[in-house]
Design goal:
By secondary structure, the chain is an alpha/beta fold. The protein has helices at residues 3-24, 58-61, 94-105, 130-139, 142-146, 158-167, 173-176, 185-189, 201-214, 240-246, 254-266, 280-291, 305-316, 328-332, 342-351, 355-372, 375-378, 382-393, 406-418, 420-423, 446-451; strands at 66-71, 77-82, 113-118, 148-154, 179-182. A five-stranded mixed sheet has the order 1-2-3-4-5.
Length: 474
């Protein structure tokens, strides 16, 4: 997997972190120290009474991102870095942040010290660029790294794993051994003088919610299941068959059709289409409207990336992936197939899909092929789109896809987009006899059955047009 692919994957994982954190959020309650039962009082950003406006880095220090927080159990000075204290990137000079970090560490690097990194709160709005992270690591010379005895990363996510993969070539084995991951504050407590540690209240609340979730208490899952039984107008979290039955037999789900129609008309030239995130609150609002059968007008939101996020969310919340659990292992083997035979192998794998899944997949891939043809404007070629859509089209029935699985999953998706005309072409277009039997949906262009077209097929390189029905929601 190329560095660019990994960077795009990091963006996707960060977006998922945001969605899961939002889904985990619930009504707040007083924070209580586990050991004493007393509420924990933590100064929030800008409330440090000891901070003077004459501080050389007041513009950065006032946010409270860095704190010097007592000692660990070995008597080493502890410095904390809290992502939840970082303001949006346009409000923070990251070069100044690096200088402030070095200014702070310069006071302690002559002795052994420990850094605690609270990952919770990093999001697409406040994260530094990967180039900044790389230059930051390089600027910390041996003087800083030698006496750093431990780097504790609290509440790590898949984003951290991808980030580690990106920077692994730069990181020495010796430094890598200093990195220790803690999934909860209780694990961290064993290594530090916890009563001296300044933990942001946002981190405490998040940790409490995680503990409640692991203990089986009521806490909303990452995917909110539809009501049982689902509403007649339910669109998210229900099967393709359910949507077909509730929509007069239409093969293409309404949400997919509406978002594709809108993006084709107004979003093909939007830079970074399908890579940008959107407000989780807005996403939930639009899901609610769709699920209640109410109209959605994306023009009202003024964000061309919003329908793109809704489309991905729809795919991700299907009870079974569009490419089906059954095809997962076959897709993983695509990298072992000779390059010249991979398109043929893709066709073979797709032949095992249910007719409905094949129709929806063909419709979606046709649109993504069209998006890729506008990559000079939107910067989203078939490879970039594959990095975004791979994990939204296929995932294992148990657990999550491993990092090694991402290469074949993304490659398979890229082949479907890049060679759309060949993968989904009619048998006669390739000089092969038709094998369709009466009553079957043609595997060549199932979108024609969905749209009622029965005339001569379009050129393979042209993607299908979306369904146009009365009352189309925009």
């Amino acid at each position: 997997m190329s560095r660019l692919d990994l960077e795009q994957l990091a963006e996707i994982e960060l977006q998922r972190d945001e969605e899961e954190a939002a889904a985990l959020s619930m009504a707040g309650r007083p924070l209580v120290m586990p050991t004493t039962g007393r509420p924990l009082v933590v100064p929030t950003a800008g409330q440090d009474p000891a901070l003077s406006m004459d501080h050389p880095f007041y513009d950065v220090a006032r946010h409270g991102i860095l704190q010097v927080a007592g000692e660990d159990r070995f008597g080493r000075r502890v410095i904390t870095f809290s992502c939840c204290r970082m303001p949006p990137s346009h409000e923070l000079n990251h070069r100044r942040l690096l200088q402030y970090l070095k200014h702070t560490l310069d006071q302690y690097v002559e002795s052994d010290y420990t850094i605690v990194y609270f990952h919770y709160g990093l999001n697409s709005q406040n994260k530094p660029s990967l180039s900044w992270l790389q230059s930051t690591y390089k600027e910390f010379d041996r003087r800083y790294k030698k006496n750093l005895k431990a780097l504790y990363i609290v509440h790590p996510t898949n984003f951290i794993k991808v980030l580690w993969t990106i920077f692994k070539p730069l990181i020495s084995h010796k430094f890598g051994k200093k990195v220790i991951y803690f999934n909860s504050l209780s694990e961290l407590r064993e290594h530090l003088k916890y009563d001296q540690l300044i933990v942001p209240p946002e981190v405490l609340r998040y940790d409490e919610k995680l503990r409640s979730l692991h203990k089986g208490r009521s806490s909303p899952p990452a995917k909110t299941p539809p009501p049982r039984p689902p509403l007649p107008t339910q669109q998210f979290g229900v099967s393709l068959q359910y949507l077909k039955d509730k929509n007069q037999g239409e093969l293409i789900p309404p949400v997919l059709r509406f978002t594709v129609t809108y993006l084709r008309e107004k979003g093909l030239h939007a830079e970074g289409l399908f890579r940008r995130s959107a407000s989780v609150h807005t996403i939930r609002e639009i899901q609610r409207l769709y699920n209640q059968g109410k109209p959605v007008n994306f023009d009202d939101y003024g964000d061309i990336h919003l329908p793109a996020v809704i489309l991905k969310t729809f795919l991700r919340e299907l009870p079974q992936p569009l490419l089906t659990f059954k095809a997962y292992e076959q897709i993983l083997e695509i990298t072992s197939v000779e390059s010249s035979l991979r398109v043929t192998r893709c066709r073979q794998i797709l032949q095992s899909l249910p007719e409905h899944n094949y129709a929806v997949l063909s419709y979606l891939m046709g649109f993504l092929h069209e998006v890729s043809r506008e990559s000079i404007f939107n910067k989203m070629n078939s490879s970039n789109l594959a990095c975004v859509f791979g994990l939204n089209l296929i995932w294992p029935s148990q657990g999550a896809s491993s990092l090694s699985a991402l290469v074949p999953l993304n490659l398979f998706t890229e082949l479907l987009i890049e060679y759309y005309g060949k993968v989904f072409s009619a048998p006669e277009d390739r000089g092969e006899p038709r094998a369709d039997t009466p009553g079957q949906v043609s595997r060549a262009a199932p979108w024609r059955e969905a749209t009622g077209e029965t005339d001569t097929p379009r050129a393979p390189s042209r993607p299908p047009r979306p369904l146009m029905a009365a009352g189309t929601l925009r």
